[in-house]
Write the structure tokens for this entry.
Amino acid sequence: MMRIVRAAAMLCLLTGCERGMHQMYDQPRYRTQQPSPLFADGNSARVGPHGSVAVTGGVAADTSSGRRGVLASRPAPEPAAWDLATLQRGQQRYDIYCAPCHGATGSGDGIVVQRGFPAPPSYHTDRLRQAPDSHLFDVISNGYGVMYRYGDRISTGDRWAIVGYIRALQLSQHATRDRLRPEDITRLEASQVSPEGRR
Ligand code: HEC
């Protein structure tokens, strides 16, 4: 008997909860562009306070707690070229956002990983060396497996700059001799230490 009473009570609570949720969805609200007598300009749409900066952007923009079920997909313009300034910007952003997990050289051994977060793959594998730029951009924008997405935290231009810097990191660990300038080869040979001289 007690069990039935308890079950009935639970049912009431649960249905009450469900109704409560719907009341939240259906509460009075203005529709887009609807006029309002509340404000002097007669407009229900309000402009943010002077000097405020909108922070929602990227693929998650325009969605509200996933209710629309889809992410707004935005075309992602690719940069014409990665010049030195862009790569330096990419390096700075990478060191802030990615190095804590991926490590300064992209080997997947960042400080967060050393503290127990699942290790990401190294960028220096054939698969990720051959992955198109668009894959890297997509991973940064939308996340990948346990990696969180950065589309709403890093601007489109900065995401491309980071992609360029990942390419630079990959090259730094996998450059062939014919891609080096003569002065680089001289410096490399001068810096080469004999096995006995290695510390
Ligand atoms: C909190 C730790 C963390 C941060 C910060 C992080 N990542 Fe990751 N990343 C991961 C993990 C873990 C994986 C592997 C995910 C999986 O396979 O489930 C991964 C995977 C990747 C991959 C490989 C995808 C593939 O095809 O295997 C790329 C590329 C990548 N991350 C780029 C970035 C970039 C660029 C940033 C900075 C904007 C970044 N990550 C920030 C943890 C992180």
